[in-house]
C-alpha cells in the first residue's frame, strides 16, 4: 500500500471516529444535559478511550460545540428561512385560502423536522434543552439558530394572520407557534401514554392535521375544507 493510501485510510478512520463521537455525544447530551455527561461516559458509549475525545475535540466542551455547529447546519431543514417564507407568501396571493396553505406548509415542515425520527433527532432535543437550561454556548446558538428561526416565524405571522397589530404581536404569536411544537416533542411520552400510542410513528397525519387546524385558528384563518 502506498503512503498516500495509508494517509487516506487514516483520515477516513479519523472522520468516522469524529462522526461517532458527535452522534454519541448528541444522544447523551440530549438525554442527560451538558452537566449530566462525563468524559468517561462519552468515551465508553462511543467505544473509544478518553484520550481520543480530547484528541479530536479538546474535551467535552469542544465536542458539545461541534454538535452545536452541526445543529446550525441543519437549521433550514427544520425551519424554513425567512426568504423562503416570503417567497411562499408572494406566490400564494392575498387570500385566506392562500395564506392558510402557507401556514400548512410551514407547520408541516417543522413537524417533520422536530417530531419525525431523523438522523438529527437528538439535536432537536438539545435545542429544547438550551431554551430551558442555556449553557455558555447559548449566545452562539441564539445568534445562528434561534434568531433566524424566530425572524422567519415573525414573517409568517405578519403575512398570514388576519389581524397582526404590531411587531410585539408578531413576535409573541411566533413564540406561541414554535412552543406548541416543542411541547409536543418534550411531552411525547406523556401524550402517547394518555392516547394509548406506542409512539408518534404512524400518527403523524393525525398530529399534523390537529396542529395545522389549531395554528390556522390562532392566526384567524379558515379551518374548514382543509386538504
Helix content: over 70%
CATH superfamily label of the largest domain: Tetracycline Repressor, domain 2
CATH topology of the largest domain: Tetracycline Repressor, domain 2
Total individual domains: 2
- Listing every helix as H and every strand as E from the N terminus to the C terminus, the arrangement reads HHHHHHHHHHHH
Average predicted confidence as pLDDT: 90
Regions with pLDDT < 50 over 5+ consecutive residues?
A: none
Q: State the total count of DSSP E strands.
A: 0
- Judged by helices, strands and strand pairing, the structural class is mainly alpha
Question: Keywords, please?
Answer:
12 helices; mainly alpha; 2 domains; 227 residues; Tetracycline Repressor, domain 2; Arc Repressor Mutant, subunit A
Question: Could you characterize the architecture of this molecule?
Answer:
- By secondary structure, the chain is mostly helical.
- It folds into two domains: 3-66, Homeodomain-like (Arc Repressor Mutant, subunit A), CATH 1.10.10.60; 74-218, Tetracycline Repressor, domain 2 (Orthogonal Bundle), CATH 1.10.357.10.
- It contains twelve helices and no strands.
- The protein has helices at residues 3-32, 39-46, 50-57, 60-73, 75-78, 82-92, 96-115, 121-132, 138-160, 167-186, 188-195, 204-218.
- The radius of gyration is 21 Å and the shape is elongated.
- The mean pLDDT is 90.
Amino acid at each position: 500500500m502506498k503512503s498516500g493510501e495509508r494517509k487516506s485510510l487514516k483520515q477516513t478512520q479519523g472522520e468516522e471516529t469524529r462522526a461517532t463521537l458527535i452522534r454519541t455525544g448528541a444522544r447523551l447530551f440530549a438525554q442527560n444535559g451538558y452537566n449530566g455527561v462525563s468524559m468517561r461516559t462519552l468515551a465508553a458509549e462511543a467505544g473509544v478511550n478518553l484520550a481520543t475525545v480530547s484528541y479530536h475535540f479538546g474535551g467535552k466542551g469542544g465536542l458539545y460545540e461541534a454538535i452545536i455547529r452541526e445543529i446550525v447546519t441543519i437549521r433550514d431543514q427544520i425551519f424554513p428561512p425567512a426568504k423562503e417564507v416570503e417567497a411562499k407568501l408572494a406566490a400564494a396571493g392575498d387570500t385566506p385560502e392562500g395564506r392558510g396553505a402557507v401556514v400548512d406548509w410551514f407547520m408541516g415542515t417543522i413537524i417533520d423536522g422536530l417530531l419525525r425520527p431523523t438522523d438529527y433527532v437528538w439535536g432537536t432535543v438539545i435545542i429544547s434543552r438550551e431554551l430551558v437550561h442555556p449553557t455558555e454556548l447559548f449566545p452562539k446558538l441564539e445568534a445562528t439558530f434561534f434568531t433566524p428561526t424566530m425572524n422567519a416565524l415573525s414573517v409568517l405571522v405578519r403575512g398570514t394572520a388576519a389581524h397582526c397589530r404590531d411587531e410585539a404581536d408578531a413576535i409573541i404569536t411566533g413564540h406561541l407557534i414554535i412552543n406548541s411544537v416543542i411541547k409536543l416533542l418534550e411531552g411525547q411520552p406523556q401524550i402517547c401514554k394518555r392516547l394509548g400510542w406506542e409512539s408518534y410513528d404512524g400518527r403523524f397525519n393525525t398530529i399534523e392535521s390537529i396542529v395545522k387546524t389549531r395554528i390556522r385558528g390562532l392566526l384567524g384563518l379558515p379551518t374548514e375544507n382543509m386538504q
